[in-house]
Amino acid sequence: DMEMDPCDLREKNFLSEHSSTVGEFRITSNGIRDCIAAVRKKSNWDNRYGNLPYGHGLGVACGFFISGSALPILWNRYPQTVVHAKLDFDGRIVMFSGASDIGQGSDTMLVQIAAEELGIPMDFVQVEVSDTKTTPVDLGSYSSRVTFMVGNAAKSAASNIRREMAKAISKEKDTPAENITFKNGRIFTNDKSLDISWEEGVEMAMAGRGAFVESGFYISPKLGGNFKGAGAGLSPSYSFGAFISEVEVNPKTGETNVIKVWGAHDCGKALNPLAVEGQIEGSIHMGLGQTMSEEMRYKNGQQLNANFFDYRIPSSLDTPDMDVTIIESNDPEGPYGAKEAGEGPIHPVLPSIGNAVFDAVGVRMMELPITPDKVLKKIKENA
């Protein structure tokens, strides 16, 4: 026991942004200090930690995660992802991407980025995804890479459409292309010598040439050192998070109840704040299951609980109160400053619950899940 507040201990060891680790992980943005400050304040940590009655505890944990890997699973020299953008006569943009939306909201991200770059409503943008016949290569929805990598490629493709439209309009109107702005469904210059609707701009730009088709791609920057194993775990950017959990433990039975979880996650820039909140809340729910109940049990090589009755996933009745905070550190290399918010928030949930059990009854749980029989055994051993 170092006799140091767990939050203070962590703060003394935080990395700053624009730094690197001993293993040469490049830290381009880091909101971890804001994360722990947020959960520390919201949970009233300073007044409550160590002062709750026996059987009632608070625990804190921090974590980080990658925004995609520096190299794909199957190493090659191709871009990590390619996105095509097409503008046709109807004024609609179609974004073609091989990225798969498996519930994380990447289709919406593609629409948002195209609409932002071109200054048009989101309903002017359509997506075609995950069709190997029509969409370009994407190397997969894994490692929380899609927003960072596919988002950058989409931003580049839409930006190329805007550039080519501006060139065409500038010739028609004898206006420097660099002075043309695309915003709120209009195309204009600050001096108002040009002020037309998006639809008028499309008609003008396509005269004599037809549809615009442009591509964008993302290639990871050179990362890592020259030592053996330097490529393992490297990412263009890292997310950070801090979580505090509150638990009640019955010292007579070992039963543990997670009352509330406070979570703060640094996602760079929240392109879709509601979706980011949902990802953090989902991570708390998944972390709760991993910590408290989910377990593969085997006998003679056969799984004993290969069904959802015996393999217990938390229901809504088991879910604790949640208080989530989005921290924005605006990563300089992410699309509009964004980085991951998918898998990263789950990591601190598990140790924060374990640390809360220690605060509650003074026993360290070194094996998951934290079931009543294991807790009771530890309490008796510690008596």
Walk me through what this model shows.
The structure is a single chain. This protein is elongated. By secondary structure, the chain is α+β, with helices and mostly antiparallel strands. It has two domains: 6-67 and 237-382, Aldehyde oxidase/xanthine dehydrogenase, molybdopterin binding domain (Aldehyde Oxidoreductase, domain 4); 81-218, 2-Layer Sandwich (Aldehyde Oxidoreductase, domain 4), CATH 3.30.365. The chain has nine helices and 15 strands. The protein has helices at 6-11, 32-42, 45-48, 106-118, 146-173, 198-206, 273-292, 349-361, 372-382, and strands spanning 19-20, 26-27, 56-66, 81-87, 93-97, 125-129, 181-183, 186-188, 195-197, 212-218, 238-249, 256-266, 298-299, 302-303, 321-327. The longest helix is centred in the middle third of the chain and has 28 residues, at 146-173. Strand 7 (181-183) and strand 8 form a beta hairpin. A four-stranded mixed β-sheet has the order 3-11-12-15, sandwiched between helices. Strands 6-5-4-10 form a four-stranded mixed β-sheet. Strands 7-8-9 form a three-stranded antiparallel β-sheet.
